[in-house]
């Protein structure tokens, strides 16, 4: 709006200076339309104009659980379209990150059964792990995100309001994606004999939401953690706590014998990616940062040695 007002002021100045070269009788009528036009333009509302709610300014069309619930539904539907079609849009540097992920996932699949067997039977470990991973349950995550949203809403603080709202959206998006993959993969849980994590044990046409792959707790927790970390810059210890919690939930789903390591790994990557997607596409505070991968050769004349430096800005 400030840019537009500046433009209108410049237009009025130019018009006024042009009319000053005319006769005095023509100068007054020329200024009147300019003032009227400027007034009418200043009263015209832009589609992205902010609606003032105390100290909180919420742009029209932004998702808000209370004032704009339909915008939230629209955001989630667009998120799902973007998430499911994302692999087809990967180009150049983005493909570089698939290499370590594919390698880690392949190794995890290869050693899933061995890893679970190496844990051995331990009712205490299973009980403690399952108790801890309740922190990654949908009702706990939704409650935490909802409380953050309500705090921001009641205190008229937009940053916590947005953080809670986007965290809820990220958890919803991650849950929808995970449930879709569960329907497609139908993998047996580690506690189901013979404990080999077979995919489609009955028939490929049998669909179930209780599939082991991927881990829903891991995905939802990492999605919420990513949004909260992005929304709280300058608080590194909080970031360590959030990512530590998400990591603990993912590990706990394995040690609690609810998932194989590959289930937790893929679920964590999905959740982290979805949290970033939601923040980058819907946050009013997101500022794109330069990203690059640089490889430079090195040569030391004193020792006649060669080398390479790798610099990555993700």
General description of the model:
The chain has 314 residues and is mainly alpha-helical. The protein folds into two domains: 2-44; 60-282, Vanadium-containing Chloroperoxidase, domain 1. Helix content is 61%, strand content 8%. It has eleven helices and four strands. It has helices at residues 2-20, 24-42, 69-84, 93-96, 98-119, 123-132, 138-154, 158-185, 216-231, 236-255, 261-282; strands at residues 50-53, 56-59, 292-300, 305-313. The strands form two sheets. Strands 1-2 form a two-stranded antiparallel sheet. Strands 3-4 form a two-stranded antiparallel ribbon. A hairpin with a 4-residue loop joins β3 and β4. α5 runs antiparallel to α11, α7 runs antiparallel to α8 (158-185) and α9 packs parallel to α11. The longest helix is centred in the middle third of the chain and has 28 residues, at 158-185. The protein is globular. The model is unreliable at 1-57 (pLDDT under 50).
The name of the CATH topology of the largest domain is: Vanadium-containing Chloroperoxidase, domain 1
Name the structural class.
mainly alpha
Distance between the termini: 34 Å
CATH architecture of the largest domain: Up-down Bundle
Total strands: the figure is 4
The fraction of residues assigned to DSSP E strands is 5-15%
Q: Percent of residues in helical segments? A: 55-70%
**Main beta sheet:** 2 strands, antiparallel
């Amino acid at each position: 709006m400030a840019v537009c007002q500046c433009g209108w002021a410049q237009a009025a100045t130019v018009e006024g200076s042009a009319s000053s070269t005319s006769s005095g009788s023509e100068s007054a009528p020329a200024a009147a339309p300019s003032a009227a036009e400027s007034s009418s333009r200043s009263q015209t509302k832009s589609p992205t104009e902010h609606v003032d709610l105390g100290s909180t300014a919420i742009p029209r069309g932004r998702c808000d659980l209370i004032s704009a619930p339909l915008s939230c539904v629209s955001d989630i539907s667009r998120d799902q379209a973007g998430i499911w079609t994302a692999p087809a849009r990967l180009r150049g540097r983005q493909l570089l990150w698939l290499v370590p992920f594919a390698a880690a996932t392949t190794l995890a699949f290869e050693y899933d059964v061995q890893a679970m067997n190496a844990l051995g039977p331990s009712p205490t470990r299973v009980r403690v792990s399952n108790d801890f991973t309740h922190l990654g349950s949908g009702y706990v995550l939704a409650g935490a995100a909802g409380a953050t949203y309500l705090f921001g809403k009641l205190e008229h603080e937009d940053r916590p309001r947005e953080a809670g709202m986007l965290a809820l959206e990220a958890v919803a998006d991650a849950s929808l994606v995970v449930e879709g993959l569960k329907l497609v993969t139908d993998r047996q849980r580690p506690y189901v004999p013979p404990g080999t994590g077979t995919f489609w044990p009955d028939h490929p046409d049998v669909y179930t939401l209780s599939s082991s792959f991927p881990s829903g707790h891991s995905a939802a927790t990492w999605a919420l953690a990513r949004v909260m970390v992005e929304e709280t810059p300058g608080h590194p210890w909080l970031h360590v706590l959030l990512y530590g919690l998400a990591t603990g939930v993912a590990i706990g789903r394995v040690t609690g014998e609810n998932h194989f390591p590959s289930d937790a790994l893929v679920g964590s990557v999905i959740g982290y990616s979805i949290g970033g997607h939601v923040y980058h596409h819907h946050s009013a505070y997101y500022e794109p940062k330069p990203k690059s991968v640089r490889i430079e050769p090195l040569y030391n004349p004193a020792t006649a040695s060669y080398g390479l430096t790798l610099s990555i800005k993700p």
